[in-house]
Structures are given as C-alpha cells and as structure tokens.
Amino acid sequence: DTAVSQTPKYLVTQMGNDKSIKCEQNLGHDTMYWYKQDSKKFLKIMFSYNNKELIINETVPNRFSPKSPDKAHLNLHINSLELGDSAVYFCASSHSGRTYGYTFGSGTRLTVV
Amino acid sequence: GEDVEQSLFLSVREGDSSVINCTYTDSSSTYLYWYKQEPGAGLQLLTYIFSNMDMKQDQRLTVLLNKKDKHLSLRIADTQTGDSAIYFCAEYNQGGKLIFGQGTELSVKP
C-alpha cells in the first residue's frame, strides 16, 4: 500500500523519558512534515524537511529534534518529556512544486504521565 | 498574518445539506483545502481549490471561494451518518506552510 506510516500508534511514557516516533512514506514525495494536534484538535506545524534538509522549524522547544536520514523517512525524537507534550503527532508528506495537498499518516498518540 | 477560523460544531439531520464555513486572513494563499478526520484516524484530503477559482464541485461536495471576503465554504449534499467527522479548512500560503483552522465537528443525526 502506498502511504505514510508512523510507528508507534500509541506511546505512553513517564515524564523525563526520551522517546522517538518514526515516519516513512513510499509515495516518492520529497518533503515531509511533523504536525502536533492538541486536545482541542488544533493542528500546528512543527517541522518540515525537503530532501533531508530542514526548511521549516516553528517555535518548538529544543527538546524536539527531527532527523531525516533520507527523503522517505522523518523521525521525531523528544528528550525530557513533559506532561504538556501529550498530544497526537502527525507525519505528512508532499511533493514540492505540486499543490495536491499533503498526505497524512494515521498519527501517534503520545501520553506523558 | 496566518489565521484560519472555523465554527466548532455543526449538527444536521441525515439527508439534509451541510455547509461548513471558513475564513482566512492571508490573501497570498494560493490553494485552499478541505480535510476530513474521522475519530482516531489521520487527515484525509477531500478536495482543494485554487485561489483563482470561485467554485469547485466533486460529487456531493461543493466548494465555494469568495476571495474578496477571504471566505471558503464546503457544502455536503445529502449528508449521511458516515459523514460525521471533523472537517478542517487549510490554506497553503507563500511561506510554504499548510495552516489549518480549528476544525468543525459535524454531527449527523438519523
């Protein structure tokens, strides 16, 4: 199946831990994104990578570090997790220069306890 | 600035038409989108419209764009219970970012 896939789907962890979320797309897109959806369903862009290069870096704490080993993968590592990091994190991809919208993964629900 | 606004809730009866409204502030937006999010799922692209168009129809979906008023709407004809979801309006601006509204939760009652 052609898709954007994220793992894990659910992540429950304690405050202070470090965790990673992985994302892979097999759509041949050259741009990937991380979005955060809070408890009120508000979606905010965090990062964007184009061909492994960081192009958008919104006001996000330094504890969040994206890594793109190749243009099909974009991982998100979070250090020293806080309660306020609890949210659903969505990975998305698109083809730069085309405007058919983004294709989203199904999300990772992170709960920090 | 970047701001996309939607009303939070809409309730309709099955078979009626639903109209979900959205306003945006960035006049340089090139494309505007409607996404659907079902519970526990990701966002599914429903349709999009280029900023030089004023209407686009796709089966039961009709998108209307009033660029002067920066107003976008999505009409769903013959709304079904399976249409119950959160609908997000989004604008793609010249900053290269897809900016979302808060989402409108559509509830379809049988």
Topology summary:
The complex is a heterodimer of chains A (113) and B (110).
Chain A: E1 4-7, E2 10-13, E3 19-25, E4 31-37, E5 43-50, E6 53-57, E7 64-70, E8 73-78, E9 87-94, E10 103-104, E11 108-112
Parallel strand pairs in A: 2-11
Antiparallel strand pairs in A: 1-3, 3-8, 4-5, 4-9, 5-6, 7-8, 9-10, 9-11
Chain B: E1 4-6, E2 9-13, E3 18-24, E4 31-37, E5 43-50, E6 55-58, E7 61-66, E8 71-76, E9 85-92, E10 98-100, E11 104-109
Parallel strand pairs in B: 2-11
Antiparallel strand pairs in B: 1-3, 3-8, 4-5, 4-9, 6-7, 7-8, 9-10, 9-11
State the main characteristics:
heterodimer; A: 113 residues; mainly beta; seven-stranded mixed sheet; four-stranded antiparallel sheet; globular; B: 110 residues; six-stranded mixed sheet; five-stranded antiparallel sheet; 11 strands
Concise overview:
Chain A is mostly beta strands. Chain A contains no helices and eleven strands.
Question: Can you describe this structure?
Answer:
- The complex is a heterodimer of chains A (113) and B (110).
- With 113 residues, chain A is mainly beta.
- Chain A has no helices and eleven strands.
- Chain A has strands spanning 4-7, 10-13, 19-25, 31-37, 43-50, 53-57, 64-70, 73-78, 87-94, 103-104, 108-112.
- With 110 residues, chain B is an all-beta fold.
- Helices cover 0% and strands 57% of the residues of chain B.
- In chain B, strands 2, 4, 5, 9, 10 and 11 form a six-stranded mixed sheet that branches. In chain B, strands 1-3-8-7-6 form a five-stranded antiparallel sheet, with no helix packed on it.
- In chain B, a hairpin with a 5-residue loop joins β9 (85-92) and β10.
- The mean pLDDT of chain B is 92.
- Chain A binds chain B through residues 4, 33, 40-45, 48, 55-56, 90, 92, 99-107, and chain B through 30-31, 33, 35, 37, 41-45, 48, 50, 86, 88, 90, 92, 96-100, 102-103.
